[in-house]
């Protein structure tokens, strides 16, 4: 947490804050199969209102119209950068300011889910490239940076980083620390942690990758098999295993990116031939189980693991989640503790596995990976109690930092 400077920025009590439904209620409705067509039509008719336009942008993205959704979002942000999310009581116990970037619905911390159902008022201030926010800060009790490290967000994070020392309220997830979650920086940060394995990541140009495939560039430093992905890609887009040099040409035929990340492939399959991937959430340095995906494919995401179709897989995930503190978490306690200490973020998420010799295998870490409680209770009855424990830990952390901030004192509002 950032301490308050005597040269703190001023808070604005007269700032325009637009009301909106928010991402979480709309995504939840869609995931539950509810008909949101009437909401869609109503929002389309009110597209000239910033709050309605932001919600319309969410529905378009949910419906597969990402480009249109982002266009509508840009139009709304040109009119208003600050939004109040629905659901807070008339007299909230705390006002949280989430500092976000103008990305798609998966680009920022899913904080709406983390505080859903609480008596917290959530306000989201979008930080736009080339538009200073120091005169656009509404009154609040605590702020948290929810912006992921990305090619698109460098300017946003830099702007917030320059203001962090003057922020007038407790300030969580310092931008400079978020930048440490970049793939190549993360390797440098964690490579020597005992009991942990993380593969090096090399950033190469398109020409360099083609040269590697043609054999005109040596591959001794990072031999095949390799994992390739375009720089800036997410959710597995463009992710592929290249087992030999001749695989590069076929891979590049389907990629138009200018730069790529390369890393060695580690076989993390278990003795039964299946791969197991874990998502772990860190709140104030403590690790919590989020989910476990099991697949016969090395490239696993929860949605492609078909967990809903296998009772056997769900039994294993239930054990992972309910016994996390005494099994997985205890087994890797030293590595998890040191990882959290080095990243020094108030909130972040990690995707990982276990190597065949028992080490914690880190794939990636960041602040924007999805964390939610939307899985159907009839199939996943064990998840809701675990997610509530995680959400409570998050709001408890906010409470503690707000109390610390009150003890330090705060500047006057304007």
Task: Describe the model.
- This protein has 414 residues and is an alpha/beta fold.
- The chain folds into three domains: 18-175, no CATH class; 200-264, ATP-grasp fold, A domain (Dna Ligase, domain 1, 2-Layer Sandwich), CATH 3.30.1490.20; 275-366, D-amino Acid Aminotransferase, Chain A, domain 1.
- Helix content is 34%, strand content 20%.
- It is built from 14 helices and 15 strands.
- The strands form three sheets. Strands 1-2-4-3-5-6 form a six-stranded mixed sheet. Strands 7-15-14-12-13 form a five-stranded mixed sheet, sandwiched between helices. Strands 8-11-9-10 form a four-stranded antiparallel sheet.
- α6 (154-163) links the parallel β5 and β6 (171-172).
- It is globular and about 60 Å long.
- The two termini are 24 Å apart.
- Residues 409-414 have low confidence and may be disordered.
């Amino acid at each position: 947490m950032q301490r308050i400077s005597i040269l703190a920025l001023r808070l604005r009590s007269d700032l325009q804050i637009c009301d909106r439904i928010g991402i979480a209620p709309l995504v939840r409705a869609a995931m539950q199969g509810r008909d949101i067509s009437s909401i869609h039509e109503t929002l389309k008719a009110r597209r000239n209102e910033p709050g309605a336009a932001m919600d319309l942008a969410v529905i378009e993205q949910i419906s597969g119209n990402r480009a249109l959704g982002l266009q509508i979002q840009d139009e709304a942000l040109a009119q208003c950068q600050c939004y109040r999310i629905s659901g807070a009581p008339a007299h909230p116990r705390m006002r949280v300011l989430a500092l976000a970037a103008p990305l798609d619905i998966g680009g920022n911390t899913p904080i709406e889910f983390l505080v859903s159902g609480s008596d917290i008022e959530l306000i989201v201030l979008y930080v736009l490239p080339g538009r200073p926010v120091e005169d656009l800060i509404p009154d609040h009790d605590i702020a948290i940076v929810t912006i992921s490290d990305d090619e698109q967000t460098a300017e946003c994070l830099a702007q917030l980083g320059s203001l962090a020392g003057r922020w007038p309220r407790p300030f969580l997830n310092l931008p400079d620390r978020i930048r440490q979650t970049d793939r190549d920086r993360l390797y440098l940060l964690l490579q020597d942690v005992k009991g942990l394995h993380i593969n090096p990541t090399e950033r190469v140009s398109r020409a360099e990758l083609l040269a590697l495939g043609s054999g005109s560039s040596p591959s001794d430093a990072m031999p095949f098999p390799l994992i390739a992905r375009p720089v800036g890609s997410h959710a597995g887009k463009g992710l592929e295993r290249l087992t030999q040099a001749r695989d590069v040409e076929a891979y590049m035929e389907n990629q138009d990116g200018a730069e790529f990340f390369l890393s060695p492939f580690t076989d993390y399959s278990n003795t039964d031939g299946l791969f197991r991937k874990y998502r772990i959430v860190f709140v104030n340095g403590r690790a919590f189980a989020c989910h476990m995906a099991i697949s016969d494919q090395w490239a696993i995401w929860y949605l492609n693991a078909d967990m809903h179709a296998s009772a056997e897989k769900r039994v294993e995930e239930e054990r992972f989640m309910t016994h996390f503190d005494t099994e997985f978490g205890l087994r890797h306690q030293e590595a998890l503790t040191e990882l959290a200490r080095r990243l020094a973020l108030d909130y972040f998420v990690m995707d990982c596995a276990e190597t065949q010799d028992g080490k914690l295998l880190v794939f990636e870490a960041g602040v924007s990976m999805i964390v939610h409680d939307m899985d159907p209770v009839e199939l996943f009855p064990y998840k809701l109690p675990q997610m509530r424990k995680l959400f409570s830990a998050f709001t408890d952390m906010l409470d503690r930092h707000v109390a610390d901030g009150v003890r330090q004192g705060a500047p006057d509002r304007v």
